[in-house]
Amino acid sequence: MSSPPAAARRSETMTAPAAAETAFRDALDEHLAALQARDVARFAATLGEDVVVVDGGGEIKRGTEAVLDSHAEWFALPVRWRFDYEVVLTRETASSGLALLRVTYTHEPGAEAVRFLLSLVFERDEGEVFKFVYDQNTPLE
Q1: What is the pTM of this model?
Q2: Which of these, 42, 118, 122, 132, has the minimum number of CB atoms within 10 Å of its CB?
Q3: Span 32-50, pLDDT tens digits
Q4: Cα 98 vs. chain centroid, distance in angstroms?
């Protein structure tokens, strides 16, 4: 039996990474949509085990409970904060995905915006689903 023509082989190899890339980008988009919707349950569904968040001041939050508690407090604030972002780059390996975002955060209408870079790392869990495991904030000003 002969092997498939070169064009068919190229098509096969291009399909697999594109599907994985879409899965990572879908996970990233869902994570960010949950954040912007201020939806704690939806946000929780995006978290992996042993998640770690490093905020712009260097404070470290470790574990699902600590990360969820801090985000629940943030989401519940009565002020109408804005979290605007641009995806600067994404990278993916067989087991993880990385996104770098340029963020403009405004705590309340009329307040001065804060700008920072946000690195987000996702890992595939046992079910092959990308879950959020690490967040690093780097102030730009």
Answers
A1: 0.82
A2: 42
A3: 999 999 999 999 999 998 9
A4: 8
